[in-house]
Amino acid sequence: MLDLPEDVPLKDLSDEQLVELYRGGREEAFTELVKRYQRELFHFLVRFLSSRAAAEDVFQEAFLQVHISIDSFDTSRRFRPWLFTISANKARDWLRRNRSGPASLSAPAGSGGSAPASDDDGQVAFVDLMEADLPRPADEAQRQEIRELVQRTVALMPEHLREVLLLAYFHRFAYKEVAEMLGIPLGTVKSRLHAAVATFSQIWKQHYGELDAQ
């Protein structure tokens, strides 16, 4: 059990320390974890499911599972990949229950977590080439339009390509972490990411290619 003074601000603790505190009976530590990941995880789920209502439901399911499984979490590992693994599994479950496809393509992509991923050698990953195919917006209204069109493009991608793109690109997980989260070999992560970039580019040009000339 983690031994910390009661007056230590929860915001100053690591995710793993918060887990230890919650196991020890500090319920406010769990609230801090939810608050800490509310924005990023919700954006991930909106992009994955293309439905704000579905994202809200899956967000709740994911943290309920965290609560149920908290004793099995190894605090020598990072909490964030574990949380996203649970969330991605819950999102896939939702998609299986709703085989008709995403409920909406109009949910905004938001601005969080949009920096490109880095490969193991520290270089910017090849997925950042995706941005080269997008028109450069001149003002905030155009930027918002591009964000929404990117969200729609991602929503049209196959599920197995969409999830690897979101995890590696939008949320900047290392390739090795993505491999562990999805239970696939590292080489498969890289090949799927290559395919995801190509698919994104193809869908973008098919639906929104006229914007490139503006």
Characterize this entry briefly.
The chain is an all-alpha fold and 214 residues long. The protein is built from eight helices and no strands.
Structure, described:
The chain is mostly helical. It folds into two domains: 10-97, Rna Polymerase Sigma Factor, Chain: A (Orthogonal Bundle); 126-213, Arc Repressor Mutant, subunit A (Orthogonal Bundle). 60% of the residues lie in helices and 0% in strands. The chain has eight helices and no strands. The protein is globular, with a radius of gyration of 18 Å. Mean pLDDT is 79; it is low at 101-133.
Topology:
Layout: H1 15-23, H2 27-49, H3 52-69, H4 79-97, H5 140-155, H6 159-170, H7 175-182, H8 186-208
Helix pairs in contact: 1-2, 2-3, 2-4, 3-4, 4-7, 5-8, 6-8, 7-8
Question: Top keywords for this entry?
Answer:
single chain, 214 residues, mainly alpha, Rna Polymerase Sigma Factor, Chain: A, Arc Repressor Mutant, subunit A, 8 helices, globular
Percentage of residues in helical conformation: 55-70%
* CATH architecture label name of the largest domain: Orthogonal Bundle
Under CATH at level 1, the class of the largest domain stands as Mainly Alpha
Main sheet properties: none
How many E-type strands?
A: 0
How large is the count of helical segments? Answer: 8
Q: How far is the N terminus from the C terminus? A: 59 Å
* The CATH H-level homologous superfamily of the largest domain: RNA polymerase sigma factor, region 2, helix turn helix motif
Low-pLDDT segments, ≥5 res: 101-133
Order of H and E elements = HHHHHHHH
Principal-axis shape equals: globular
